[in-house]
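Let's practice the habit of predicting before peeking. Look at the sequence and jot down your guess about where helices and strands might fall. Then scroll down.
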Amino acid sequence: MEATEIRKLAALEDTHWWYRERRALLARALRRLSAAGQQPGRALDIGAAGGGNTRVLRAHGWRPVALEYSQDGAEVAAERGLDVIRADARFLPLPSASLDLVVAFDILEHIEEDHLAAAEIRRALRPGGTALIAVPCDMKLWSAHDVAVGHVRRYDRATLTTVLEKAGLVVDELWSWNVLLRPVAAWRRRKSTGSDLDELPGLVNLGLTTIIAAERYLPVRSLPGVSLMLRAHRPI
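Done guessing? Here is the structure:
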């Protein structure tokens, strides 16, 4: 992702409906891990950019490190008081079996050798450790936006599952996200000429927030969406 996009993301992520709901999803997943008996421990947020998800991890008692490939993203995260490593997701500078949790939201689609990143996630996790992953889905939605933000691909359920299982992870749960707004996204992507990471008028942002938050309570996770969310673990 270009430096300008990283800075734009960092400026938007505190208020933009998409990033706010994604943080809410992460918080919900962390509560479920806690309810299942997994105590907070060492966590890695891969592709942390401005560190929005890293801050969610810290707020829930985890000891997170933000990992960012770009200099701009690493600088923004450091400016926000987060522990930061600047590194490549394909070559994590961490000991094997040293992490309890890895979060990789919207990362794998940027990496040509996504299997290498998946293998590194598995290596760095302790046996029984959890990976939470999000990716954009469905090549039918491919547009100028994907090019502008540096995507290599969009996934479907089979391709995402295959990458992680070949790396040695066990997929526990896989579901769609941003289902209700998929028609809007498809329409906008057909007309897009670049990234759609833009600041929105307050009422529009509020309306989109209300719609996307409604998915928490509706049985839509098996329907086609704009993103896929996944929970996996390293087998014991």
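How did you do? The longest strand covers residues 125-136.
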